[in-house]
Design goal:
By secondary structure, this protein is an all-alpha fold. It has a domain of 252 residues. The strands form 2 sheets. A two-stranded antiparallel ribbon has the order 1-2. Strands 3-4 form a two-stranded antiparallel sheet. The protein starts with 8 loop residues before the first helix and ends with a helix.
Length: 495
């Protein structure tokens, strides 16, 4: 679900650098409002200045990202851009509560180690005929889990498993290559899996919220999955093949190695009590997301939950599942009966990410209302003479460059109103370019700082920057090609 990049290096080293970053925000606001760019109203210039201020602080991190996301609540009323109510309303966007529910469901799974059981089960299903196959199995497990819970949490959970599995490869050069492929595969599969569902990663929910605000369209769980899941399903084997080509090697597992893997899975014990309850609630929630809307298949119509409860939304379904985790009591491994989820675990979820969403939605709404998005889109009308596929590749290249340098959440929040207006200027559907931006924003594979999965894997000390850049740049190119072609050919039909 949430893919979050902690950019707080300056907080750890306070001094001149942090002071410069702090001052840069208000200075850029003053500069933009003083210049009063042609074509913008004074209110529009102030909105642009606030957006630039937030961007500078998000990229340089002189204060926590969530604190920066509160700037619209303070600055918009002070600058006369919006009333306090208008500035605050986007922070209660329905999709923020959908993601909150996803965080709580994930916290319950992690509390009882149910996520590790899923991972080992998938690896066991793929088999241990050879190390290359195991690399693919671990990547499949990672991508599958990342469809439902945070990319960051998925990577943090999977990479110790990958380290243990990689240790079974041996000490040859081939084994070293495959260990490198395995660790990179964990990071990349987490990001790829996040593209598959609406709750897979923050940009997806930002897209859903922006679609409602900027295009008047409701993107439900299944509609997004219809395009996101095929893209992820194509990219995952492409990624594996690329890693196998760049880091070639063949290692055959011995009987002892297979036995060690079996013992790790057996050590989890039988499924019972609180773990069974957590998995049952999670599975029921996932199924409810899928069947919420009726499905019209032409010759037959499959009823949905909204036939019974017309106002039921994906956020409602998620919150019902999250509340069930608090309500249902089961027997824990220590023999005592406990709730599946308590507030001790829930309060540890990344609340900051929810504020980042709210701040992004707030300034995106203000940019639309005050005409800033249309103004920026008109500046980019240089794309207007290009063929449609060229426009798609041009937008994708710009977003990819930004997402390698900044959080994909930040990039998606900043870019949505801009590409919506660009779509108007070049005669393309808003939703199509917004969807393209969303998927490409998750394709930062080249730099350790591009995504939280990259940071976690790089921090394990098992790979070098050169290895990540070598594989990531090629995967960036392949991902852009897959995403552009998928959105170009099917995006407008599916949405």
């Amino acid at each position: 679900m949430a893919d979050r990049r902690e950019s707080e290096a300056l907080l750890d080293k306070p001094g001149a650098g942090r002071l410069v970053a702090l001052a840069a925000g208000p200075l850029i606001l003053v500069a933009i409002t003083s210049l009063s760019p042609a074509g913008l109203t004074p209110a529009g210039a102030r909105v642009l200045g606030v957006a630039a201020w937030m961007t500078v602080w998000w990229l340089t991190g002189p204060i926590p990202l969530g604190a920066t996301a509160l700037l619209p609540l303070v600055l918009f009323p002070v600058l006369g851009v919006a009333s306090p109510r208008e500035a605050a309303t986007p922070y209660a966007n329905e999709f923020i509560f959908l993601f909150l529910a996803g965080f709580m469901l994930a916290a319950a799974l992690e509390r009882w180690n149910a996520h590790a059981r899923v991972a080992y089960a998938i690896v066991g299903t793929v088999g241990t005929a050879g190390a290359r196959r195991v690399v693919f199995g671990v990547m499949v497990a990672t991508a599958f889990i990342s469809l439902w819970i945070s990319n960051t949490a998925t990577t943090a959970m999977m990479y110790p498993i990958a380290l243990a599995v990689g240790a079974l490869f041996g000490t040859s050069r081939d084994a070293d290559n495959l260990r490198t492929a395995l660790m990179l595969g964990i990071a990349y599969a987490a990001s790829i899996g996040g593209m598959g569902t609406l709750i897979g990663t923050p940009p997806n929910l930002i897209f859903a919220g922006a679609a409602r605000e900027l295009a008047g369209a409701d993107i439900d769980f299944v509609s997004f999955m219809a395009i996101g899941l095929p893209v992820a399903a194509i990219l995952l084997p492409v990624c594996w093949l690329l890693l196998m080509a760049l880091f070639p090697g063949r290692v055959t597992f011995t009987d002892d190695a297979r036995e060690e893997l079996r013992l790790k899975r057996a050590a989890l014990g039988p499924l019972k009590g609180t773990e069974r309850a957590a998995l049952a609630i999670f599975a029921a929630t996932a199924v409810a997301w899928v069947i919420r809307e009726p499905k019209d298949l032409g010759i037959v119509r499959l009823p949905g939950l909204t036939d019974l409860v017309p106002r039921l939304t994906d956020a409602s379904v998620g919150l019902i599942g999250a509340l069930a985790m608090f309500i249902i009591v089961a027997r824990a491994p220590d023999g005592k009966r406990k709730p599946v989820l308590t507030w001790n675990e829930a309060r540890g979820i990344p609340w900051e990410v929810l504020l980042i969403y709210g701040g992004g939605f707030s300034f995106a709404t203000a940019m639309e209302v005050q005409g800033v998005a249309a103004w920026l889109g008109n500046i980019m009308t240089g794309f207007s003479g290009w063929p449609t596929i060229g426009i798609f590749f041009g937008v994708a290249a710009i977003i990819l460059l930004l997402t390698e340098l900044a959080s994909n959440t930040t990039v998606a929040a900043m870019a949505m109103p801009i590409v919506a207006s660009l779509a108007d200027a070049v005669g393309q559907p808003r939703l199509t370019l917004m969807l393209l931006t969303t998927l490409v924003a998750s394709a930062g594979f080249a730099l350790p700082t591009a995504t939280a999965p990259n940071i976690i894997v790089f921090g394990s000390g098992t790979i070098t920057v050169r290895q990540m850049v070598r594989a990531g740049l090629l995967l960036d190119v392949l991902a852009v090609i897959v995403v552009v072609l998928a959105v170009f050919l099917f995006g407008s039909r599916l949405l």
